[in-house]
Design a protein that fits this description.
Blueprint lengths: L1 E5 L4 E6 L10 E5 L6 E4 L3 H9 L10 H6 L9 H5 L5
Antiparallel strand pairs: 1-2, 2-3, 3-4
C-alpha cells in the first residue's frame, strides 16, 4: 500500500501488508520507481522516517539527501506554533 513518494524520481514508499497482520506490524518497502529494485525495512513508518533523518537507516536511496542538504539539526514544532496561532 503506497504512503509516500519522492518527488521527481518516481520512487514510492509502501507498507508491506500481509493477511492477518495488524497495521502496527506492517513494514516499509521502498521502490526506486524507474527500475525493479526494492528495499525492505523491517520497521514501521515513524521508525523509518526517524532512521532516515538521523542517518541510521541502512538505505542506498536516501543518502544523497545528506550530500545536498547537510542537515545539522532537526527541530519540530506544533502546527499552532508554526502557523502563529499559539497563545503567547
Amino acid at each position: 500500500m503506497p504512503w509516500a513518494f519522492e518527488e521527481g524520481t518516481g520512487a514510492f514508499l509502501y507498507w508491506l501488508v500481509r493477511p492477518g497482520q495488524h497495521p502496527d506490524e506492517w513494514t516499509v518497502m521502498y521502490n526506486e520507481g524507474r527500475g525493479p529494485l526494492w528495499e525492505h525495512h523491517a520497521m514501521g513508518c515513524l521508525a523509518f522516517l526517524l532512521a532516515v533523518l538521523t542517518q541510521s537507516a541502512k538505505t542506498q536511496y536516501f543518502g544523497h539527501h545528506y550530500e545536498v542538504l547537510k542537515p545539522t539539526e532537526h527541530r519540530f514544532a506544533t502546527a499552532d506554533r508554526t502557523l502563529g496561532t499559539a497563545r503567547r
